[in-house]
Amino acid sequence: MGLVVQKYGGSSVADAEGIKRVAKRIVEAKQSGNQVVAVVSAMGDTTDELIDLAEQVSPMPAGRELDMLLTAGERISMALLAMAIKKLGHEAQSFTGSQAGVITDSVHNKARIIDVTPGRIKTSVDEGNIAIVAGFQGVSQDTKDITTLGRGGSDTTAVALAAALDADVCEIYTDVDGVFTADPRVVKKARKIDWISFEDMLELAASGSKVLLHRCVEYARRYNIPIHVRSSFSGLQGTWVSSEPINQGDKQVEQALISGVAHDTSEAKVTVVGVPDKPGEAASIFRTIADAEINIDMVVQNVSAASTGLTDISFTLPKTEGRKAIDALEKNKAGIGFDSLRYDDQIGKISLVGAGMKTNPGVTADFFTALSDAGVNIELISTSEIRISVVTRADDVPEAVRAVHSAFGLDSDSDEAVVYGGTGR
Ligand code: ADP
Ligand code: ASP
Ligand code: MG
Q1: Which domain of life is it from (predicted)?
Q2: I need a surface site. Which of 206, 267, 283, 402 has the fewest CB within 10 A?
Q3: Ligand 1 atom nearest to CA at 9
Q4: How many Å from the N-terminal Cα to the C-terminal Cα in the chain?
Q5: Hey, what domains does the chain have and what are their CATH numbers?
Q6: Which of 396, 404, 402, 399 is nearest to 417 (CA)?
Q7: Residue 320 C-alpha to ligand 1 middle, in angstroms?
């Protein structure tokens, strides 16, 4: 007998029908002889709707109370799912993140898991129950307050539980058939990937491929937990994310030269204008941002104008942190010493990811040529060993993603990628 951790995303449990369909799938896993722990997200777009509601009451709601509100979404789906499973004649018990032993730090809205003590879950499955766990939530070790793990955090709950329970497999069920070479909502000719390494998946996830949350992949890599990403709407094999290539039938899956194209329109750009070009300036700007607990992405410093000795520094960050960053910088304006701030939330990022980049000098040139052929202007560039990213106008993103996908020969010549559900929100 094995232990399986399954995670069902919001689009898989969007309505009562979805919950019943998922309940059946979970029961099938149990009937084939496994102990089953199912992690579940809030129904459909519930989390977004709760955030909208909070903003109507207060434009910057307190982190503690926002977490309390958002965790309600996962409580609804976990209880309904347990009821639906019981209706099928099987025993199920639902647990909040705190009850499941998901212990976090105390950073509200984006807490990190620091420990998992799944005693109650273990007992529950040992007694023959199916355990249903609310994803995306935990409890702070210090304050004992309820926390959430950041958007998409149920993926991390699933992997963390799989590690703590020493599960045989962690399955992430979603509304597409696996990880594709680009978001199937944008590129109809995207191809399903059979296997992808933790490293490439980490870069794709960090670059905006929200099919897996990047913290979840980080966690899986640290504890070496293979993940199977697949659709809850079809019976097809999905994508394996693991350290070593898998065998499929008699064919060994090879490491692709280029894994895929990711895009992200959730970031904004802040430009600090008129910064004195002297040591310590960048340090005080980014200390201010770090003290506000804001994670930044790209950073670019312009060449300073010889006549003024002043320069501009631009960086990108999640749009949701934009207001906080501007407020923090304005507050420290005298200490840092700059002229003004510019804020631009109409940007998008396109990234090409693949381990093959390390050894193929032509990739960067081909990437820029594809963008220029599509008439897309580049505003910022950043690279890692296995990724190249550019910032463009947000409007240009879909066209740019398709152009790059074609240019690197990633277009599939068979079936179009299927999106089974979800609103893409
Ligand atoms: P869930 O509700 O199951 O967590 P998400 O909406 O978080 O689902 O993630 C699934 C979505 O991720 C897909 O519907 C798809 O639009 C998007 N996506 C982005 N990039 C990719 C990719 N490379 N492969 C597959 N899906 C992707
Ligand atoms: N419900 C949360 C969200 O929408 C967590 C998740 O779905 O993983 O972000
Ligand atoms: Mg998700």
Answers
A1: Bacteria
A2: 283
A3: 3
A4: 38
A5: 3-251 (3.40.1160.10)
A6: 402
A7: 20
Work out the burial of residue 255: count CB atoms within 10 Å of its CB; fewer than 13 is exposed, 13-18 middle, 19 or more buried: middle
Q: Please compute Rg for the chain using Cα positions.
A: 23
What kind and span of H or E run contains 202?
helix 198-206
Task: Read off the DSSP letter of residue 110.
Answer: S
* Cβ of 42 below 6 Å from ligand 2: yes
Q: What is the 3-state secondary structure (H, E, C) of 149-196?
A: CCCCCHHHHHHHHHHHCCCCEEEEEECECCCECCCCCCCCCCCECCEE
Q: What is the pLDDT along the chain (425 residues), one digit of tens a residue?
A: 799 999 999 999 999 999 999 999 999 999 999 999 999 999 999 999 999 999 999 988 999 999 999 999 999 999 999 999 999 999 999 999 999 999 999 999 999 999 999 999 999 999 999 999 999 999 999 999 999 999 999 999 999 999 999 999 999 999 999 999 999 999 999 999 999 999 999 999 999 999 999 999 999 999 999 999 999 999 899 999 999 887 766 666 777 789 999 999 999 999 999 999 888 999 999 999 999 989 999 999 887 777 788 999 999 999 999 999 999 999 999 999 999 999 999 999 999 999 989 888 899 999 999 999 999 999 999 999 999 999 999 999 999 999 999 999 999 987 678 999 877 77
Q: Is the CB of 10 under 6 A from ligand 2?
A: yes
What are 191's two structure tokens?
């191809």
Dihedral of alpha carbons 278, 279, 284, 289, sign: positive
**Residue 322 in contact with residue 268, Cβ under 8 Å?**
yes
Contact (CB, 8 A) for 141 and 103: yes
Q: How many other CB atoms are there within 10 angstroms of residue 356's CB atom?
A: 15
Is any ligand 1 atom within 6 A of the Cβ of residue 185?
Answer: yes
Whole-angstrom distance, CA of residue 214 vs CA of residue 220: 10
CA 393 to mean position of chain CA atoms = 22
Look up residue 35 and give its two tokens. 């102990």
Is residue 150 within 6 Å of ligand 2 at its C-beta? no
**Residue pointed to by tokens 């004649």:** 89
Tokens of 293: 């607990």
* 424 Cβ below 6 A of ligand 1: yes
